[in-house]
Structure formats: C-alpha cells, structure tokens
Design a protein that fits this description.
The chain is 39% helix and 15% strand. By secondary structure, the chain is an alpha/beta fold. It folds into two domains: 204 residues, 2-enoyl-CoA Hydratase, Chain A, domain 1 (Alpha-Beta Complex), CATH 3.90.226.10; 68 residues, Lyase 2-enoyl-coa Hydratase, Chain  A, domain 2 (Orthogonal Bundle). β1 and β2 form a beta hairpin.
Amino acid sequence: MAYTDILYDVTDGIATITFNRPEKMNAARKHTHQELLAALNEADADDAVRVVIITGNGRAFCAGTDLTGDVNDGGPKWSSRPGDPATGEGVPPDVAAVGPLRIWDMNKPVIGALNGVGVGFGASIMCSMDIRIAAEGARLAFIYTRRGISNESCSSFFLPRAVGMQRAMEWVMTGRMVLADELKESGFVRDVVPPAELLPRARAIAREIADNTSPVAVAISRKLMWNMLTATHPLEASQMECRGLTAVMNLPDAKEGPAAFVEKRPAKFTTRPSKDLGFMRNWFAKP
C-alpha cells in the first residue's frame, strides 16, 4: 500500500509507523485510520519485523480527529452519526477504534514514542501500546468531555488498566492536559527523555527485544498478560500458561534458548509467528 497520512519504515527488524500530517498536527481523518490499520497488518504479517514503534512527525504526536474532514461515518459533519441512540440499533462501529483493536491483536510488541501533544484519539491510541516513552514537553489530553462527547478508541478499556481507575477518571472527567512529568509519575510512560533521544530510546528497547528473544514466546507472553487482566482467578492464568508452555515446548526455540545459555552464546531463534502461532487462534474468545 502507498501511504500518504503515515510513514512506514522497516529497518533491522523494527517497523516505525509515523503519523505524517504535520500541517494538521497529525490529526487523523478516516483515511489515516485505514492506513494505520494497513501498516499494522503489514508489520504483523512480516516475520522480519520483531517490534513496532508508533510516533508522530513534527511537534505533535496526533491532535485527535480532524474535525474539518470526514470522521466516523465518512460524512462531512462531526455530529452526523446514524443509528438509534435510544436502542443502539444501527449504530456504526467507531472507525477510530480500528487501530487500538488491531494493536490488541498484534503478535509483535508495540512501543509508543510520544513526541509531542496527543489529544483525543491521539491520547487514546497511546493507551493501547505495550511500552510508552515520552519526550520532554510532550503531553496528553483525553479531551472528550470538553467537546461534549464521551470516550472513544477503546480508551475506557485501556486507560484504567494503565493508570488505575481513580486517575483515569480524573483525567477523563476533567479533560485537562496531562504533562510529561505526570505521565511518568503515574506510570503511564516508562521514561521522559529529551526530544532528540526519544526515537533512539524507543529503538534501544526494541533492539533488546529483537536481538534476545523468541518471536513466538514474545507473542504468547504478550497475549497472556493482556488477556489475563480480565481473569477472575489465577487458575485461569495457570491454565492458559500451561497451554502456552505445551505449545512452545514443541517448537525449536525451546531447545535453542537453553542450549545457547549453556554454550554461552547468543541464541538463534527461528520460530515465525506467521506460521507457528496457528494453534493460538481460538485461545481467547472475542465478544
């Protein structure tokens, strides 16, 4: 796919997706969401890609939805949503949710590199990423209530899991700007670094994963930890972990890892998510 609203690059096993509408502060239109989904699909299908980084071009990460263009229903006005608000019948899906939902289903870790302001969708999609770092001066705002609307982009699911319910409630109910230092203090981001160090730091974390871990082991572990957030008893985790262990123990990486350790050499993992994860297809039920 030829991308216009994003940049897509793969270098040394790391895919970098960059929101690329700097003249609009990377505000997302319908086409942006389509390209983001395509890029995530491309990265997940490519066994050469081990980690995905998502960032923005210019002074913004993503300034939310482009209110001057098409939005969820492809129409010209923000307020024009079909369907019956009383019954929910005919209500269309949230186009802005395709990115967070696809990130949830990824086999590859996703690192968010918050280079500047993220508002609305730009804040919500950051919640769905596995690891987050921010540049000094970066900031987020879950600004929905200040615009007379409610949560979107799966933020009501991901944000409380990232920072706890009380802080998530306060950020959403006020819609205020949350600065980088508070993002770090809350645990929402792992590090706050000078802007010039943002992508190098993200790539260093990605490199640690790509150079030292089994692709299939990473994919299974990632899905276990996200899905077990909604488990009601540790036995559920134990049962799913046993399934994962049984599966990977029959793959070559489970022999290569211990052998490399004993022989004091770097491991050469050979599993490929595209062909070695079929057994996991029905593990986690979708609503």
